[in-house]
Design a protein that fits this description.
CATH class of the largest domain: Alpha Beta
CATH architecture of the largest domain: Alpha-Beta Complex
Helix content: 40-55%
Strand content: 15-25%
Number of helices: 23
Shape: globular
Number of domains: 4
CATH topology of the largest domain: 2-enoyl-CoA Hydratase, Chain A, domain 1
Largest sheet: 6 strands, antiparallel
Low-confidence stretches: 1-25, 647-685, 721-728
Radius of gyration: 27 Å
Amino acid sequence: MRRISVLIAVLLVSLTAFAAVDKDTALILEPQMEQRYASNLATKFLTNWHYKDTRLDDELSSQIFDSYLELLDPNRIYFLSTDVEVFERYRNSLDDALRHSDLLPAYEVFNVYLDRVRQRVGYARARVQQPFDFTIDENYQYDREGEAWARETAELDELWRLRVKNDYLRLKLTDKDDEAIVETLTERYDNLERRINELNTEDVFQFFMNAFAQSIEPHTAYLSPRNSENFEISMKLSLEGIGALLGRESEYTTISRVVPGGPAAKDGRLQAGDRITGVGQGREGKMVDVIGWRVDDVVDLIRGPKDTVVRLEVLPEDSSISGPSSVIDIVRNEVRLEEQAAKSSVIELPVDGTEDEVVKIGVIDLPVFYLDFNGRAENRPDYRSSTRDVRKEIASLEEQGVQGIVVDLRNNGGGSLLEATTLTGLFIDKGPVVQVRNSNGRISLEEDVEPGMAWHGPLAVLVNRYSASASEIFAAAIQDYGRGLVIGEPTFGKGTVQSLLDLDDYAPSDSPGMGQLKITMAQFFRVNGGSTQNRGVEPDIRFPSVGTPDEYGESSLSNALPWTSIDPARYAPSGDLSRMVAVTDSRYQGRIGDNEEFKWLLNDITEYNVHAEEKSVSLLESVGREKMAESEAKRAERKEKRKSLDPLLSDDSVLAVSPNPEGEADLGDAEEVAAEDEEEEEDEGPDLLLREAARIVADMAELESDLELLEHQFSQLNSEGPGHRKIN
């Protein structure tokens, strides 16, 4: 999980402001006056308003120092130990520097970092041109966390020789020829240098302030003005623009995808793969050449107020660089980001002992708890809200005759606390949903005050290790009220509440945008008094999973707040589901024992756990090809066996256990690694866990309609001998 957090931070930072830099000229970055203002305000808020009692002293300074170096060079492949020895003079003085808004130490470290990355790129670009011998028994250590810093350049050269050799071998195993491999890797290293040369003072400031914030607590962060805007977009699921996702290909900004229903899609002329060479405002505004620009700066030019015109100079995908280009004018409008909105579907399961009878189980997929705060404050009739959308999906599922519902919160990292409360209110009558304690110890209740439920029937909440925050509030409330079952893995364990502070609200009126602080100011507690902090929500029915929670959850993060508890709130549970849990869990255990897909899943988990501690990979081509052959044989065998399995499984989405990675993600190759991981995780298998969750809800529906059957099977479980589940 820590690697994933670093990757996300890197991707965010790599999408900030533009700085045009000559390829052969080293840019010396220095702090600007607005960053000094922002650091002064942020320091005061972080040390006085945070939920955790925080002192800006030498101990915190040392933590900031380590966090900053780790954020820049987590795998210790850029800095030399001599660099770090020079930096050590700042270890116990960053607290004093922050008190005086002195950012020079942060920029000095960053400028050395830029030089070291450029040196490594130069070495990699030269080394890939030389031949490699893949019959030599060598290993590439892709995980160097905690390793000693390299003492001299020759030592770094050897680390990078093995890294480049690994890059080369990964492509060679796909049967690319040597010329194509060299071309691909040279472009990859060129892209790394390009991204490094585009970094500017705002990027440095964001890195350093996040090192400061996360040295206090892992969910506190600084958001630059641009990232603040992107955060608001992610919460309201809409923006004003043309509706196109942009990417980068060499020097060109490209159209990655046209958003369905957006202005570009309705216009029809802009296509995925097209390259944008210029952007003009209005019908006659000057066309600005954007070749070589950072993607986010091109985005800034294309976004704009509704009903205004933007002109794009475009090279079609199938045109050469020399053209011809065309100019496309598009009227901006509101673009809804429906990929993150609540969606529903129906799973039909055969009824045992019948040929054509099925039970319908509804699935509501909710990727995030979103809310258009401004639209709600202005009382707009069409403002977006996850609760509003889920209510509509429930009504649609009822019309389709579903007998139970699964709310799928896998990978839902949270969102609006208000939405967690109101969404819970769709499934309980009324009452407290979550208790919130602030830094002064004052406890308040977030309550559902609206009587009635949108759905009264059988309910399950499907969660995994990446379900966090608002997802945990919802799952815990459903569990505490006895309103439904929680199914899946133990959740992440984020039991804290963050507030956004706009630094512009506290700055001189003539100062430019200074961004926002996402600061932890409270902790939430379940209505039963316990916290989800560190421990997460323990599912009623647990699915198999890789590793252990302490390897990926909140408890694995530095500076995480500890678990604690308070007195329970006064609430009236809907019922006692202990008998339902016992019987449905017993049925589930019986099913997976004979299920071929579950056997494969358990086998994959076992293999993953065996290799989980590995930090290196062989650079023998013969070993790589042997592993590929084994993987392909296993894939082919499963594909063939699936033909004889339940045909209802054939058209679901994928389930895969990610392999142990064979390369780290850093500032240079984050995008490439992310794309490669996405390809690796593809599998032909069904979303087995979602289907099994639906089966469990179908069992709930059957048992609720036949209470005598529930009591009979519960009694049987209690009367079974050793080796069976005993219910107390």
